[in-house]
Specification:
This protein has helices at 19-30, 52-56, 59-63, 80-90; strands spanning 7-11, 35-40, 72-74. β1, α1 (19-30) and β2 form a beta-alpha-beta unit. The protein has a three-stranded parallel sheet with strand order 1-2-3. By secondary structure, it is α/β, with parallel strands linked by helices. The radius of gyration is 15 Å and the shape is globular. It has four helices and three strands. Helices cover 31% and strands 13% of the residues.
Length: 108
């Protein structure tokens, strides 16, 4: 199995309810893996205001600079495809050229 290249951290109102996630984020940071944060904004999918994460994220991660990088907003409706493409690009996807995207359609 190839080694991980990124950690995708899905931020919703449920994110920090499992203590194992803290260990996984700390391990990714120790391994110098890029952490790509996807911020769920849609209430029907558990979305919340980003400010909530400063209250619910363990202080060791906040103080360590977890949120220095911008999170990519997961937005529905007309902007959904843009959100997905931004996430895919942050995870290393490349355009196939010719105006066509090599990014698959998937539900987020």
């Amino acid at each position: 199995q190839p080694p991980a290249t990124h950690l995708l951290l899905y931020l919703s109102e449920e994110t920090w309810k499992d203590d194992r996630l803290v260990e996984q984020v700390q391990a990714a940071r120790a391994d110098k893996l890029p952490i790509v944060m996807a911020h769920e904004t849609r209430p029907q999918r558990g979305g919340c205001q980003f400010s909530r994460f400063f209250e619910t994220t363990p202080q060791v991660l906040v103080a360590g600079g977890l949120y220095k990088e911008l999170a990519i907003a997961c937005i529905g409706g007309a902007h959904r495809d843009i959100s997905l493409r931004l996430l895919a690009m942050a995870l290393g996807a490349k355009s196939s050229g010719g105006g066509q995207s090599c990014l698959p359609r998937f539900a987020l």
